[in-house]
Each structure stands twice: as structure tokens, then as C-alpha cells.
Amino acid sequence: MHAGLPKYVPVNLKDIAAAGFQEGDEVSLETLKKKGLIKPSGRERRLPLKILGEGELSVKVNIKARAFSAAAKEKLEAAGCSVEVLPGRKKWIKPSVAKNLARAEEYFAKKRAAAGSEDAASS
């Protein structure tokens, strides 16, 4: 049903560079909307921001987005920009399933601890 629909509002580094951000400015979904770089409407209004790596960025800015492509992250860190990954929305889980997941995590944590102590004892 949702096949092919975008999960993010994509913005390339070249678009951020062309928008005229100054040194130390914050780049986020709100600031990009104010600059007129993105005009989300309809379903896109609720989508988070994703930074893509096409182009170069010469100004050091603070970027806040939900996701970054590998190329974008590499280029931003090379340019000395600060990158902040915003947290996503947690998926709702039925309480009984959550309880079972917690039990399984507890069980495997005990198993890992036991395996770790056996390795230490045999050394």
C-alpha cells in the first residue's frame, strides 16, 4: 500500500550551500522551510528531513536531521560541520509483546554473562 512513497524529505548539500547559510547557522527542517528551500505539502508535512551527499558544503553549519546518507555524513565531517541525528518515533508495541521482549532480553543477558564468566575462568 505504501510502496514507493518517500519516508523522508530529501535535501542535497548543494541546495544547502545555495541557500546562503552563514557560518555557525543551524540547518533543520524549520530553517529550510523558512528559507523556502523545501515546501512540503500534504503527506510531506509530517515527514522528517534526510540530508543527501550531492554537492559540496564549504560553510561550517550545525545540521539537525533524522537521517544522513553515508556520503553526506562523510562530507559534513570533513568540512567540520556538527551533525545531530534526531530521534525517530518509537513504534507502538502491544503490552504483551513488550513483556515477552523484556523477558527474552533478560534471559539472553544472563546467558551472555554466564558465557563471559566461563571464558574468564578457563583463561
UniProtKB/TrEMBL annotation:
* UniProt xrefs under InterPro entries: Ribosomal_uL15/eL18, Ribosomal_uL15/eL18_sf, Ribosomal_uL15_bac-type, Ribosomal_uL15_CS
Q: Which UniProt keywords apply?
A: Ribonucleoprotein, Ribosomal protein
PROSITE patterns for the chain: RIBOSOMAL_L15
Q: Which Gene3D superfamilies match?
A: 3.100.10.10
- Supply one GO BP term: translation
Q: Does the keyword Ribonucleoprotein apply?
A: yes
What residues does the Large ribosomal subunit protein uL15/eL18 domain cover? 11-84
Give the CC-aspect GO terms. cytosolic large ribosomal subunit
Instruction: List the Gene Ontology MF annotations in alphabetical order.
Output: mRNA binding; structural constituent of ribosome
Its domain of life reads: Eukaryota
Family of this protein: Belongs to the universal ribosomal protein uL15 family.
Name of the protein: Large ribosomal subunit protein uL15/eL18 domain-containing protein
**Per the UniProt entry, what species is this protein from, by scientific name?**
Punica granatum
Lineage, broadest ranks: Eukaryota, Viridiplantae, Streptophyta, Embryophyta, Tracheophyta
